[in-house]
Design brief:
This protein is of the alpha+beta class. The chain has helices at residues 33-43, 74-86, 130-139, 171-176, 181-191, 226-238; strands at residues 2-8, 17-23, 48-55, 58-64, 69-70, 93-100, 103-110, 113-117, 122-126, 155-158, 162-167, 195-200, 208-214, 219-222, 251-257, 265-273, 279-285, 287-294. 22% of the residues lie in helices and 39% in strands. It starts with a strand and ends with a strand.
């Protein structure tokens, strides 16, 4: 089996979010779950993608953190399809289907840039009770009394993986967050979410700046998270924060993450209304290959 290490959501090595990618041998099946989890732990990245080739443009991908399997991972998906191009399995411009535990997702590759569908967005609740809000912000290391944040409240949203979207007032406040990782892991388990996606919209160079924390899955902080920023884009829709729509009716967002980790990442998202009153969210970015080789499983 071939393995790759790629930095996703960046066009520069040592930026973005690194992922492991394992392409299974043709006609081979997935290794046992525990073997894939141990492989992810051995590679030591937040997620490793295991790719089974089903056809010329059809794939099944399973995603493992060092602790457990997850339904979907945005940055590992971006890395996966860039690696499939580098391996000569896909051309530089094509459309594909990715079968995941979060559903069947469309992938578009254009000149090395990958756009992926998110799972249908789901709003799972709002944390509005003052005591619970204070508890969340205390766990996240936010000092002092919680201001109003322009009426924004933390919300639980999923576009493949559930996270708590947590607003803060500025980039300085975002940078100062210092979560109690054990308490955050316990809180994440209680709310049945992957973690907390903290963000601020008070910035001039992007739609938002954000940080993502998921210690429940052995990821204290992550430099770029596709599913979380897909969920954040839906949060913007729910709260009237989206930029103006383009000529084709879609709205594009530019989200910056990873600066605190010295791995700056740029995640592009777009959202468009569908005929049923819902919406389709896509997340995209590029990736840079760091290493490749053979893995003996």
């Amino acid at each position: 089996m071939k393995f790759f290490i790629a930095d996703a959501f960046t066009d520069s090595l040592f930026g973005g979010n690194p992922a492991g990618v394992v392409i299974l041998d043709r006609d081979g099946d997935f290794p046992p779950d525990e073997t894939m989890r141990k492989t992810a732990a051995e590679l030591r990245y937040s997620e490793t993608a295991f790719i089974k080739v089903l056809g010329d443009r059809e794939f099944q991908i399973r995603y493992f953190t060092p602790a457990a399997e997850v339904d979907l991972c945005g940055h590992a998906t971006i890395a996966s399809f860039v690696c499939l191009v580098k391996a000569g399995i896909l051309p530089e411009n094509c459309a594909c289907i990715n079968h995941t535990l979060a559903g069947d997702l469309n992938i578009e590759i254009k000149d090395g840039f990958v756009m992926m569908d998110m799972a249908s967005p789901v709003e799972m609740g709002t944390i509005s009770e003052p005591g619970e809000m204070q508890r969340l912000y205390n766990v996240m290391g936010y000092g002092g009394e919680i201001p109003d944040f322009g009426g924004l409240k933390p919300q639980l949203i999923s576009t493949g993986l559930p996270d708590i979207m947590m607003p803060v007032g500025s980039c300085a406040e975002l940078d100062a967050l210092n979560p109690d990782m054990k308490a955050l892991s316990d809180l994440s388990a209680e709310y049945k979410v992957t973690g907390v996606h903290a963000f601020t919209v008070n910035c001039d160079d992007a739609t938002a700046h954000c940080r993502n924390f998921a210690p429940l899955y052995d990821i204290d902080e992550e430099a770029a998270t596709g599913t979380s920023n897909g969920a954040l884009t839906y949060y913007f829709r729910l709260n009237g924060l989206l930029p103006d729509a383009g000529a084709d009716g879609s709205v594009s967002c530019r989200i910056v993450q990873g600066e605190k980790m010295d791995r700056p990442s740029v995640i592009l998202t777009d959202i468009r209304e569908d005929a049923d009153g819902g919406c389709l969210i896509r997340v995209g970015g590029s990736a840079v290959l760091l290493a490749e080789g053979d893995i003996k499983l």
